[in-house]
Specification:
Layout lengths: L1 H24 L17 H5 L5 E3 L10 E3 H6 L13 E6 L11 E3 L2 E6 L4 E9 L6 E8 L5 H9 L1 H11 L3 E8 L12 H5 L11 E8 L2 H8 L14 H10 L1 H4 L6 E8 L43 H10 L2 E7 L4 H8 L6 E4 L7 H13 L4 E4 L5 E6 L18 E10 L2 E2 L2 E2 L5 H4 E8 L6 E7 L21 E4 L2 E4 L3 E2 L5 E2 L23 E3 L5 E3 L5 E2 L5 E2 L5 E2 L2 E2 L4 E4 L2 E4 L3 E2 L5 E2 L18 E3 L2 E3 L21 H14 L7 H4 L6 E4 L10 E7 L4 E8 L11 E5 L12 H26 L4 H4 L10 E4 L3 E5 L7 E9 L6 E8 L9 H4 L7 E13 L10 H18 L9 E6 L10 E11 L3 H14 L1 E2 L2 E11 L3 E8 L5 E7 L9 E13 L3 E2 L3 E7 L5 E5 L3 E5 L4 E10 L5 E9 L12 E6 L5 E7 L5 H6 ...
Parallel strand pairs: 5-19, 7-8, 7-10, 10-11, 11-12, 36-39, 40-52, 41-53, 54-61, 55-62, 63-70, 64-71, 84-87, 89-109
Antiparallel strand pairs: 1-2, 3-5, 4-6, 6-15, 8-9, 13-18, 14-15, 16-17, 18-19, 20-21, 22-23, 24-25, 26-27, 28-29, 30-31, 32-33, 34-35, 37-38, 38-39, 40-42, 42-50, 43-49, 43-51, 44-46, 44-48, 45-46, 47-48, 48-49, 51-53, 54-56, 56-59, 57-58, 57-60, 60-62, 63-65, 65-68, 66-67, 66-69, 69-71, 72-73, ...
Helix pairs in contact: 5-7, 8-10
Length: 1897
């Protein structure tokens, strides 16, 4: 009944609510409407909700009564009836600023205003500071003994100090104070002699003394200063904070004036004490500083020993309150302390003081000038309902101290006062009066004058509420009409109170809408009168809850493009946005061209993009001609202009000329260049005349939207008819040639005698010669220490003048033109590195040689910016990288200049263009804005190089830095040739033009290698014997170095590290390296996270002619032995009678009960028999019985005691603590249990064993305490022993407490932990019997800090933070709180902190949006249980420094999302997540990476913190949000039923993995070596192909000896929509391989492209010119000396979205994926339980034959267990399979292969892990599906499945690398995201802690 009454009151509100939602559908603005929150409230509540809320009181109004004013008017409310509220503002006093008054002034002086909630008002404020206004300067000096020279200098400068103050102000005062420290130990030496005179000729110690009150008498100041003497103390920090506070609060005694600028100069050389600093034993002894003035008549501080130092916030507040600006004059010793202290003050200055303070006057002048240039505006006494901002005249918000007001001039700024809507989670109108009203003082920090603003929150009320109509007819007499709305009486419901609370009102049929089966759509409760109340109003809405707020159109993966709200099944867009998914901006801002027009007048702006007209000319995004795509407009149009105007040129043929996209106009005169867009001129090759034309852009109002080409009719031709000059010219040329010949002869014969004279003759080139110094160099490759050779070039002859010599070098000149490597031409489109060297026009410094120095970093950035700007002209060029700086010796006068080495990646064919471009820019001395020295450059490839060197005047020798191109595939003896090509600058001739460089590669005498890449040993083996082999090529001794290295196994914890040298004799081929394996300690055995333990052994430094072979590294896996089963007797003693037919003695088993185990038993001390037997436990059995039949043995049955013993357990078991039991046999009819018999016969106790205490009770008295009570029982015990242990631990680990009374208090226990306890009494004869075990749980305590705080960066303004459950929950976690605060580099807050409370403890992640771009935030997380909040876990991160993510990332449903721009208190969030991310535990700075990824302690900025799941998840689907994924199924609908046959014998047995709260990530990286390379970093998708099963080659039909086999696997890795990486596996071959050939063409025909790979160690190429959505046929073959081997073929397609207008152009940023027609569709995994999952896939699109079924294999990724196979019959569109008997936290590899009438197709591969942390049920998550990392794999020859071992772990990343994909539907395309995370873990306490982390995407 009570529920009905409540419903009667708010049912009308529900109706209004439904109407209100309908309003939103008609609104273009769907921003959050604050009026909605009070739509069911009263009229007054409506007007008080928001500044723009209005209320309609008309009775006939049917729309939402509380809404925005324009909305209720649009719904029919009359403007006259609509109720609104209006605020006010009045300037009550505004006296203009009088600039003649030399004092600070503010105008206006008094303002009053009222503001509605959410309203803002601005006030213009003027401030004035005089040029030389009043100034009070107070000097506060450290008088400790170390400042004696500073004091003497200050005394000498007394007169100068007074002069300085006079210069700064015409109205000044100056004062002086001194301080030392508190006169108390340990700050001061308290011996009487030291209290009198701590140092010779010094004053007694003191805390602070005001020596000279502020005075304008400079002479008096100087004379008083001369009287001062130094004092002293003990410790280094001084008590200056006491002095500063007293100087601030004792205004009258110091002499501060009201209208002056207050400066306090604080001079010291020591650091400072502060409140409770812990250095002294003062915290807790001295009271807090009372902030009062305590100076006596002599000016001394009197309470220094009675109260503590002030805190820094106290000083900041008090100095600001009294308008005092501090100037810290400190020495180098303490400069850093005060530099950080200064940042806490709005305005403060710091200066570096000389050791003797000799520069204090200069320091003060500089500081004062700096202060005058700054002004910080403050708002004092502001009520909590208001927020203030200060703006400059342009409306920009200005931070503290950023106003630049000039003294002597009036400064202007705006104060913006904002009234908050909500404060502390409640409406602002509900605050107490002091929070809503107050007087705010707005003033500069240095001013006393202020603008007083009386501000009030206006909370209006409605008059209509006072005139309610009782029992109104509109309300059918059952309610009052108040402000147009019915308020129903009890028992009546609905909008008009016309529905009674009768049984008829319970009819649920009223809650059924059209075509509905369930009331309220099954999403809500059907209440009286057919009213639906939705279960989740934040998700469902509508009259029948029929609308889902998450079911609207998406754009780019975002619901309503994140630019609107989903209302009633449609997107209601925010203001300024439109479209079905709010994807179209209403403004044309994105269509504006550079001239401010829209689409350059050629197109129209549609949905925020320019729609350009059809044209053959390429257009930009704003419909401007894209001249860059046409090599410039002139070059792109010259041939068409030439053919139309003169019928000449390359298009002079009419058919070609008619195809030109434009027409020309011949004119008599051209416009000037400044009046046209482009002015062009070219020479006509046919008549040698020059023609000119202009290109004009069309005007916006022009009807013809084409470029205008105006061609000058008249050409410029050379003068005609000069043929008569030809004979004369020929004669003169012959004569000149004769003279030159004579001159040359004359110079040659007289050169030695008249060289100095001939140098003046131009015909003799000045007598200078340049050339290489040597003819040839020869090196052994093993002795080379550099990849370059400095080859000297010399110059002879007169050294005057400058000569620049160009040179080039060619590799492998020894090879003939028919050499196979010469015939294999490289791919011209292949991206290769181009090393480039330039000499910068700046001197080299030592800092530039350190890459991490600031100078090097700045110069590196400058070089990169300018070089990127220059080389962007090269098509396909990428940004420069690896920039270093060096100095080159023997470089002439330029050798002190810095040389820059960098690498530019570009297509191979661009080499000539790069050389020309570099040469051109170097010659000019500038590369964009980068100054370089002309005459020096080097540009190289992997096989040739070119460059130039410069001989300056007086220089005779310069080195040429020649690259040597050393490569593994080099011939045994190779030759390079360096050639001096020409002298472009200078008059020298080239003499010795060539120099040859020969490099000899020594033949190896032996090859060292491990036998295999990986080994596995058990800890029980004790020693891992690792063989190292040597392949003998030539007889002789050789050596190699070996060394172990940690991966996940740790030295001295899992194994003992080894390193050393192995010497092999002439005939030795193998040696063993023994590595000792260590047993786990008991602690490690309990806490270990059970991840795979591995270490690596590396071979290095082969000597005496040897080299490293195939496996220079091997990985050793340590397999931990499983815990043994424990078997023991169930009881220590058992009683039987002589009449019992059998004796049954139970034996129990604990631990590891899933394995079979055995134990033997035997009898002892039996009178009639000696028995023994074997007891067998099957898997799962926990108890077995030993049965003895006493009648089966001879002799009478008599009373006796028999002892049974367990012994000789199996290797996987052990015997527990009860290895023996006593069997007591008593007489039959008179038998009584032994204990009862002893109780009745107390005489038996005397001298015997005590009985157990009785009535044992336990009660928890606290989180760490349990109280025990028991009854003593019979006997006379000397005391009691209490044994207690954690529930589940063995009793042998119990702690024992000895007490004398029958009660005990257990302390220091774990909170919220179950304990087991038992008690026994003891006397002089020993311990008595134990009581039965009792259990008790301690009470809850506050939780510990959360673990594993980590981040996933979605964009520079959006991040997801996730955390782990506290290691010590100390109870049931009920909530989490996240606080994030913007901070600066010193972790100081620069903005308001924001809180988010998450009430569901399972949801340990939060998505935060609208963060400030490039702002560092500190994030803090804490947990709460029933006791309260625990400590914070914090970390900081700047999102701008993290890798960005694709824009198409979807928002995962049900993730808590908060807006960083929301209120200051608890923010609301939109959704929750069914998947809680679990992240690795981190320190307080979790972004600190490992040693491999840091540089000088700085963070490597290429990391990100991955998340993980706290529930059971499938870790294969890792979106950028985390390891988890709430990803959507690619195809909807249910799974198709198939005939499934289970073919494996038995599933792998389940192993419980103790992970300490966390699982180890799985490594799916392939090692890239010279032999195996399956995957590379940054790939998006991969397909692996091999031979088709069933068509194996005939092994007997081998190829000719030396011919390579077919590459056994072909791997395709998608790098982009048009880029592909092709890799293959090295084929078998009896001879050394010489290279590979990759051929590819479109499947439907076309040109066959060829890529030759000359390096046999390289087994991959990158193809970048592919077409999207086109199938390609690839072929790969290998070559040896004997010829080419057979080809491996594969067909592949890169699928991606394309531009509708250009089907061969992919959309920028569009998703892409690989596909092959004969492979099954993507694998989709769904977790069903902790040990089972459902696997589904789609049928191949184009199978090779008819599909008969599928073969599915499942195996553990890292080995262990059997390979399980499943056969699935059927040919359906989608097939599914349920896989049982899996183990949590173990990665499994699944392969799906279609079986057709033609054999088996390619395999689709997926790797999956069912993760578990908290053991919670998975049933609520079983609808979440996600796809795995996809690999298409075809079986390879015979060893199909065995070759999986090639996908080995890379030791460098084997501790938790994960490569996974995210599967997401976006406009019909499938997107896969690939992430990689590398995590190194160690065990600490009871949890797993991530210490180092690297993450890359």
């Amino acid at each position: 009944m009570q529920l009905r009454k409540e419903m009667g009151r708010w049912t009308p509100r529900l109706s209004a609510e439904l109407g209100l939602l309908a309003v939103l559908l008609t609104c273009c603005c769907a921003q959050e409407n604050p009026c909605f929150a009070v739509r069911a409230g009263t009229c007054s509540e409506c007007l008080q909700a928001w500044k723009d809320c209005a209320y309609c009181p008309e009775e006939s109004f049917k729309g939402p009564r509380c809404d925005l004013y324009e909305n209720i008017i649009a719904h029919g409310c009359s403007a006259a009836a609509a109720l609104t509220a209006k605020s006010s503002m009045m300037i009550e006093r505004k006296q203009p600023i009088n600039m003649r008054l030399k004092q600070s002034q503010v105008s206006p002086q008094q303002v009053s205003m009222s503001l509605l909630p959410g309203e803002e008002k601005e006030v213009d404020v003027e401030v004035f500071a005089p040029t030389k206004g009043p100034l009070d300067l107070y000097i506060l000096m450290d008088f400790s003994n170390s400042m004696v020279d500073d004091l003497n200098n200050l005394k000498r400068m007394g007169t100068q100090l007074a002069s300085l103050v006079k210069d700064l102000s015409d109205d000044y005062t100056i004062g002086f104070g001194k301080f030392v420290d508190k006169v108390v130990e340990p700050q001061t030496d308290m011996r009487p002699s030291k209290l009198k005179e701590p140092w010779p000729n010094s004053d007694p110690p003191f805390s602070f003394q005001n020596v000279i009150k502020l005075t304008s008498d400079a002479a008096f100041f100087d004379s008083e200063l001369q009287k001062e003497k130094i004092s002293g103390n003990l410790d280094a920090p001084e008590g200056g904070f006491d002095a500063i506070l007293q100087a601030a609060v004792c205004g009258d005694k110091i002499g501060w004036r009201d209208n002056s600028t207050h400066l306090l100069v604080f001079s010291t050389e020591s650091s400072f004490h502060y409140e409770g600093d812990g250095v002294n034993v003062l915290s807790g002894i001295l009271a807090r500083n009372d902030e009062g003035c305590h100076l006596d008549a002599a000016g001394k501080y009197t309470k220094d020993t009675q109260q503590d130092y002030p805190s820094i916030p106290t000083l900041v507040r008090l100095l600001g309150k009294h308008n005092i600006i501090p100037i810290f004059a400190v020495t180098d010793h303490s400069y850093t302390y005060y530099e950080k202290l200064r940042e806490y003050f709005p305005i403060a200055e710091i200066g570096r003081l000389q050791e003797d303070s000799s520069n204090i006057l200069t320091l003060m002048r500089v500081a004062f000038e700096s202060i005058r240039r700054k002004m910080s505006i403050r708002a004092e006494d502001k009520p909590k309902a208001f927020v203030t901002n200060f703006l400059d005249t342009s409306g920009r918000v200005v931070e503290h101290g950023a106003f630049d007001f000039k003294p002597g001039a009036i400064g202007n700024f705006k104060m913006r006062l904002s009234a908050q809507q909500m404060v502390g989670g409640k409406p602002v109108c509900q605050l107490e009066p002091l929070g809503k009203k107050g007087s705010i003082r707005v003033k500069p920090t240095t001013f006393n004058a202020a603008a007083n603003v009386d501000a009030t929150i206006l909370c209006p009320s409605c008059e209509c509420e006072k005139s309610a109509i009782p029992a109104a007819a509109k309300c059918h007499g059952h309610g009052d009409l108040v402000c147009g709305r019915c308020q129903c009486y009890d028992g009546w419901l609905s909008t008009f109170c016309n529905c009674s609370e009768s049984s008829a009102a319970q009819d649920t049929s009223r809650c059924l809408g059209p075509d509905m089966k369930d009331p309220c759509s099954g999403r809500g409760d059907c209440l009286e009168c057919g009213t639906c109340v939705c279960y989740n109003p934040d998700q469902f809405e509508g009259e029948y809850c029929q609308y889902d707020k998450t079911d609207c159109q998406r754009y780019g993966g975002f619901l309503c493009n994140d630019r609107g709200s989903c209302i009633r099944g449609r997107c209601a867009c925010n203001e300024g946005w439109a479209g079905n998914a709010c994807e179209c901006p209403n403004s044309n801002a994105t269509c504006l061209d550079s001239k401010g027009g829209v689409c350059n007048g050629r197109g129209e702006c549609v949905c925020g993009r320019c729609k350009c007209p059809e044209s053959d000319m390429s257009m930009t995004s704003t419909c401007a001609p894209n001249f860059e795509a046409q090599l410039g407009v002139c070059e792109g149009t010259r041939s068409c202009v030439q053919c139309q105007a003169w019928k000449t040129g390359e298009k002079k043929d009419k058919t070609q000329c008619d195809k030109c996209p434009f027409k020309i106009v011949l004119v008599d005169e051209l416009k000037e260049e400044k009046d046209v867009a482009h002015s062009c001129s070219f020479r006509d090759e046919e008549d040698d005349c020059t023609y000119r034309y202009n290109v004009e852009d069309w005007k916006p109002d022009s009807k013809v939207k084409e470029l205008q080409f105006q061609v000058l009719k008249k050409k410029d031709c050379p003068p005609a008819s000069l043929l008569w000059l030809l004979p004369l010219l020929l004669f003169l040329l012959l004569l000149l040639a004769l003279l030159l010949l004579c001159c040359w002869k004359y110079c040659a014969c007289c050169k030695t005698c008249f060289q100095s004279c001939l140098a003046l003759l131009p015909c003799c080139k000045g007598g200078r010669m340049v050339g290489f110094k040597e003819d040839e160099y020869m090196f052994r490759q093993s002795l080379l220490t550099s990849d370059h050779l400095d080859t000297p070039m010399v110059r002879t002859g007169p050294p005057k003048g400058t000569d620049v010599v160009r040179w080039k070098v060619t590799d492998n000149v020894h090879r003939s033109p028919t050499h196979p490597q010469v015939l294999m031409k490289p791919n011209p489109k292949e991206i290769i590195p181009f090393p480039i060297s330039l000499r910068l026009n700046r001197l080299f410094s030592e800092n530039l040689s350190r890459p991490d120095s600031r100078d090097a970093e700045q110069l590196r950035k400058e070089v990169a910016d300018n070089l990127n700007e220059v080389y962007k002209q090269i098509p396909g060029a990428q940004k420069v990288q690896k920039t270093l700086f060096r100095k080159q010796k023997n470089a002439g006068k330029r050798q002190d200049f810095a040389i820059m080495d960098t690498v530019l990646s570009a297509p191979r064919s661009s080499y000539p263009d790069i050389v020309k471009l570099t040469q051109k820019n170097v010659q000019s001395g500038n590369l964009h804005d980068l100054k370089v020295v002309p005459g020096y450059y080097t540009v190289a490839t992997d096989r040739e190089a070119a460059g130039a060197i410069e001989f300056q005047e007086g220089v005779g020798s310069v080195d040429v830095h020649v690259p040597l191109f050393v490569k593994d595939e080099d011939d045994d003896k190779k030759q390079l040739q360096v050639e001096a090509t020409d002298v472009p600058l200078g008059i020298a001739e080239i003499g010795k033009r060539f120099v040859n460089i020969t490099i000899i590669k020594e033949h190896a005498t032996g090859v060292f290698s491990f036998l295999q890449p990986a080994y596995t040993y058990s800890r029980g083996d004790g020693v891992a014997h690792i063989p190292i082999s040597k392949e003998i090529i030539e007889e002789g001794s050789s050596q190699v170095t070996y060394r172990t290295r940690d991966i996940t196994a740790k030295d001295k914890k899992d194994y003992v590290a080894m390193e050393g040298d192995l010497t092999f004799g002439p005939e030795e081929t193998q040696k063993i390296v023994p590595v000792r394996l260590l047993e786990l300690s008991e602690k490690d055995g309990l806490l270990a996270d059970k991840q795979v333990r591995q270490f690596a052994i590396d071979l290095s430094n082969p000597r005496q002619g040897a080299k490293l072979g195939r496996y220079p590294r091997t990985t050793v896996t340590i397999a931990d032995e499983p815990d043994p089963s424990v078997m023991m007797f169930k009881k220590g003693s058992q009683n039987f009678s002589t009449t019992d037919p059998t004796y049954t003695i139970p034996v129990v088993r604990t631990r590891n009960q899933d394995i079979p185990a055995t134990v033997k038993w035997r009898t002892k001390k039996a009178q009639r028999f000696e028995l023994s037997d074997l007891l067998k436990f099957s898997p799962g059995e926990t108890e077995k019985n030993i049965v003895i039949d006493p009648r089966a043995h001879p002799g009478p049955i008599q009373p006796e005691t028999i002892q049974l013993e367990l012994f000789d357990p199996s290797v996987n078991a052990t015997v527990g603590e009860r290895k023996t039991t006593l069997v007591n046999v008593a007489d039959g009819p008179h038998y009584k249990p032994l204990e009862m018999e002893q109780v009745q016969n107390k005489s038996a106790v005397k001298g015997g064993r005590l009985f157990s205490p009785t009535n044992l009770k336990a009660k928890a008295t606290g989180p760490r305490n349990i109280r025990l009570n028991w009854d003593a029982g019979s006997g006379n015990p000397a005391g009691y022993k209490v044994k207690y242990w954690i529930y589940g631990d063995p009793e042998k680990d119990a702690q024992v407490l000895d007490v004398k009374s029958p009660q005990a208090e257990l302390t220091d226990l774990y909170p919220y932990c179950d304990y087991e306890m038992r008690v026994c009494s003891y006397n002089a004869l020993g311990d008595g019997s134990d009581t039965d075990i009792v259990t008790c749980q301690t009470l809850e305590d506050a939780p510990g800090e959360p673990g594993r705080l980590a981040f996933n960066v979605i964009s520079p303004t959006v991040t997801q933070v996730s955390w782990g459950e506290p290691a010590e929950t100390n109870g049931n976690i009920t909530a989490y709180e996240v606080i994030y605060t913007p901070i600066d580099d010193d972790l100081k807050a620069v903005g308001a902190a924001k809180k988010v409370k998450i009430d569901n403890p399972k949801k340990r992640m939060l998505l935060i949006e609208n963060l400030q771009r490039a702002q560092t935030y500190q994030y803090k997380v804490r947990a709460m249980n029933s006791i309260g909040w625990g400590p914070f876990k914090d970390a900081s991160i700047n999102l701008a420094s993290q890798p960005t993510r694709p824009m198409s990332i979807p928002i995962i449903p049900d993730v808590p999302i908060v807006d960083a721009e929301a209120g200051d208190e608890y923010d609301g969030y939109l959704m929750y997540s069914n998947e809680v991310l679990r992240t690795p535990t981190g320190s307080k700075t979790p972004s600190v990476s490992g040693d491999d990824y840091t540089s000088n302690g700085k963070w490597d900025q290429n990391f990100l913190f991955p998340g993980g799941s706290a529930t059971r998840n499938l870790s294969s689907s890792s979106s950028p949000m985390s390891t988890v994924g709430s990803n959507y199924r690619g195809a909807g609908g249910s799974f198709t039923e198939t005939n499934t046959t289970y073919m494996s014998a038995g599933g792998s047995q389940r192993t419980d993995m103790i992970r300490g709260g966390m699982h180890s990530s799985e490594v799916i990286m392939r090692k890239r070596s010279e032999n195996r390379s399956y995957m590379d970093e940054n790939i998006r998708d991969s397909i692996v192909m091999g031979d088709v099963s069933g068509n194996f080659p005939d092994l007997n039909a081998r190829l000719s000896p030396g011919i390579p086999d077919t590459p056994s696997r072909l791997v395709f890795s998608a790098l982009g929509p048009t880029a592909l990486k092709v890799s293959w596996q090295e084929p078998r071959c009896d001879r050394d391989l010489q290279g590979y050939c990759v051929l590819y063409q479109l499947l439907n025909g076309g040109k066959m492209n060829t890529v030759n790979v000359t390096n046999p160690a390289e087994n991959s190429v990158i193809i970048q010119d592919l077409l999207p959505n086109q199938s390609y046929l690839f072929k790969v073959k290998a070559k040896s000396q004997e010829g080419w081997g057979p080809e491996r073929e594969g067909v592949i397609t890169i699928e991606s979205a394309v531009d509708p207008k250009s089907p061969l152009s992919p959309m920028p940023g569009s998703p892409f994926t690989l596909s092959t027609p004969s492979a099954p569709g993507p694998l989709v995994f769904t977790a069903l339980s902790p040990d089972s999952l459902q696997l589904s896939w789609e049928k191949p699109r184009k199978p090779n034959g008819d599909i008969l079924g599928y073969v599915v294999t499942c195996e553990q990724l890292h080995g262990g267990g059997d390979v399980r196979s499943f056969e699935v019959n059927g040919d359906t569109a989608e097939t599914s399979l349920t896989v049982p008997n899996l183990t949590e936290n173990i990665p499994y590899k699944f392969k799906v292969q279609a079986r057709t009438t033609q054999g088996f197709g390619p395999e689709r591969e997926g790797i999956i892990t069912i993760e578990s942390q908290d053991g919670s049920s998975l049933s609520q998550y079983n609808s979440q599906s996600m796809s795995s990392r996809e690999v298409f794999q075809m079986p390879t020859e015979v060893s199909t499945r065995m070759n999986v071992s090639h996908t080995m772990m890379d030791p460098y990343f084997s501790d938790g690398a994960m490569m996974t994909t995210q599967h997401m539907e976006t406009s019909g395309m499938v997107t896969r995201q690939v992430t990689k995370e590398v995590v190194q873990r160690s065990v600490m306490g009871g949890t797993t802690v991530t210490k180092k982390m690297f993450y890359e995407s």
